[in-house]
TrEMBL record:
Substrate binds at H9, K13, T35, G36, T37, T38, S55, G56, H88. The active site is at D61. This is Methylglyoxal synthase. Residues 1-120 form the MGS-like domain. The gene is mgsA. Gene3D superfamilies: Methylglyoxal synthase-like domain. Belongs to the methylglyoxal synthase family. InterPro entries: Methylgl_synth (IPR004363), Methylglyoxal_synth_AS (IPR018148), MGS-like_dom (IPR011607), MGS-like_dom_sf (IPR036914). Keywords: Lyase. It catalyses: dihydroxyacetone phosphate = methylglyoxal + phosphate. Catalyzes the formation of methylglyoxal from dihydroxyacetone phosphate. It comes from the Bacteria. Its EC number is 4.2.3.3. The keyword Glycoprotein does not apply.
C-alpha cells in the first residue's frame, strides 16, 4: 500500500476529482492524504477515505512537504495550473523541490498521474 498525497490548484481541482473518480478502485487500495479543499472534494465526489490536512495556502502544502521529508509519503499527485499565478507560490515550489530532493514520484497532470498509478 502506497501513501499518496493529493493536491490541486483551484483551476485544476475539477480535473483531479475526475481523475480520482476514474481511478477510484485503485486509489482505494492506498492511504490517501489531501490538502483541505482538494481532499474534501475528493471525498465528496468519490467516497474515498482521505486524511485531511490544512488548505494548501494555510500550510497544507508544507504539511505534505514535511511528510515527504520524514519518509511518510510515497507519491505526490499535484495537479498544477501553469497559467495562473499562485499567491503561495513559494510553498508550491518548496513542495515540488522536496519531492524532487527525496526522489518521490510527483505527478503534475493526468498523464503522469496515470503512469505513476499504474506502477504502484
Amino acid at each position: 500500500m502506497a501513501r499518496i498525497g493529493l493536491v490541486a490548484h483551484d483551476d485544476k481541482k475539477d480535473e483531479l476529482c475526475a481523475w480520482a473518480r476514474r481511478h477510484r478502485v485503485k486509489l482505494g487500495e492506498h492511504e490517501l492524504w489531501g490538502t483541505g479543499t482538494t481532499g474534501s472534494r475528493v471525498i465528496a465526489e468519490t467516497g474515498l477515505a482521505v486524511n485531511l490536512l490544512k488548505s494548501g495556502p494555510l500550510g497544507g502544502d508544507q504539511q505534505l512537504g514535511a511528510m515527504i521529508a520524514e519518509g511518510r509519503l510515497d507519491v505526490l499527485v499535484f495537479f498544477i495550473d501553469p497559467m495562473t499565478a499562485q499567491p503561495h507560490d513559494v510553498d508550491v515550489k518548496a513542495l515540488t523541490r522536496l519531492a524532487t530532493l527525496y526522489d518521490v514520484p510527483c505527478a503534475v497532470n493526468k498523464s503522469t498521474a496515470d503512469a505513476v498509478l499504474a506502477f504502484i
